[in-house]
Design goal:
Layout: H1 12-19, H2 25-30, H3 35-47, E1 67-71, E2 92-96, H4 102-107, H5 116-126, E3 151-153, E4 160-162, H6 164-168, H7 180-190, H8 196-218, H9 222-232, H10 241-250, H11 252-260
Antiparallel strand pairs: 1-2, 3-4
């Protein structure tokens, strides 16, 4: 999971919230034939580089019905600060539909291959969770550091694993657990980030990295490796950026290139 930087400039949702602070999300969706809602959704995903806020799958070429707006702190809950969670721009995340589309249903068993908010919703139902304010119970992308190292990557399985050393030396705001490690571990569980579907997708990234490094080393082409490192690391993020960052840091050559930038 990577940090999300949200703009602070006025947008359609902020304007609506200022004009009608007690309105609901459904009120917002219904105004002006849905145009303000659509522009908000477009801006949301643009600022996330068309990536799902949780699993980091690219939604660049996907249809609009495979993109969702998630209220991180459930709009059905109450805020102690009196804020309207329905219309809080900083409470919104762009997410995928968690493998519930027809194509993935044909390929992978459900519900064990659901992810992201689709899996979180199932957890809420199965575990009968009443408090749906997830702040501090899972990682919040707006609270993360740039290029954080909270996750390691298992190259044999494609799984994400909490980075024990990094977690021990870094605190996360609002954490309700005794350690950062536990928070990262619970984030993986709630969003099912290690389902078979996502593990296989991350392995594709790993195999592509290995192939490109092998070609560059065979040609003694350091410029090709430098281009790979600069293209993969940092901003704008790409699909499965957490995995890409780990692979670049873990490789002796690319890690040195990154450190020089």
């Amino acid at each position: 999971m990577i940090r999300i930087n949200k703009s602070t400039e006025e947008n359609a949702l902020i304007r609506f919230a200022l004009s009608d602070p007690n309105a609901t999300w459904d009120d917002f969706r219904g105004i002006d034939q849905g145009n303000p809602y659509n522009s908000t959704k477009k801006l949301l995903f643009k600022e996330q580089s068309e990536l799902c806020a949780y699993c980091e799958v690219s939604l660049q070429d996907c249809s609009e019905n495979t993109k969702r707006i998630e209220h991180f702190k459930s709009k059905s809950g109450n805020s102690n600060l009196g804020e309207n969670l329905h219309l809080d721009w900083f409470n919104l995340l762009g997410v995928c539909i968690g493998g519930s589309d027809f194509k993935n249903k044909e390929t992978y068993d459900l519900p064990k291959n659901l992810s992201c908010d689709s899996h979180k919703a199932r957890i809420e139902e199965v575990e009968k969770i009443a408090d749906k304010n997830w702040l501090g119970k899972v990682l919040f992308p707006l609270d993360l550091q740039e290029n954080n190292k909270l996750f390691n990557f298992d190259k044999s399985t494609g799984m994400l694993i909490p980075n024990t050393e990094y977690c021990a030396n870094n605190e996360i705001p609002h954490n309700k657990f005794e350690s950062t490690f536990q928070l990262v571990e619970e984030t993986i569980r709630i969003f099912n980030l290690n389902c078979d579907r996502l593990n296989k997708a991350r392995l594709v990234i790993f195999y592509d990295f290995e192939r490109q490094i092998k070609i560059a080393r065979g040609k003694s082409d350091i410029n090709r490796i430098k281009f790979l490192a600069s293209n993969w690391y940092g901003r704008p993020p790409k699909s499965f950026q957490t995995t890409r960052n780990f692979l670049l840091r873990d490789n002796l050559i690319t890690s040195k290139i990154i450190n020089l930038d």
